[in-house]
Design goal:
About 20% of the residues lie in helices and about 30% in strands. It is of the alpha+beta class and about 80 residues long. The chain has a four-stranded antiparallel sheet with strand order 1-2-4-3. Strand 1 and strand 2 (about 20-25) form a beta hairpin. The protein starts with 13 loop residues before the first strand and ends with a strand.
Length: about 80
């Protein structure tokens, strides 16, 4: 669902990295709309995601170099 989500300037500045069973979400800066776009993308993700919980994982920030770590989703 997240792949189909719209974003400002059609940039889709988010990235998701799977690691140890969790999905870690990152946002690439894109002129002030990055976090808003990520929120739209996450709303679409939630629409199709299995049950789970959101967490901030301190170590996840090292998984992707080209974007800022925001939050992780851990399936139940």
């Amino acid at each position: 669902y997240m792949r189909l989500a719209p974003s400002a300037r059609n940039a889709q500045p988010w990235r998701a990295v799977e690691h140890d069973g969790a999905l870690h979400f990152f946002c690439k800066p894109n002129g002030g709309f990055g976090l808003l776009d990520l929120g739209i993308g996450l709303a679409h993700f939630i629409a199709g995601a299995p049950s789970g919980c959101w967490r901030v994982c301190d170590s996840a920030g090292r998984l992707f170099d080209d974007a800022d770590y925001v939050i992780s989703y851990l399936p139940a």
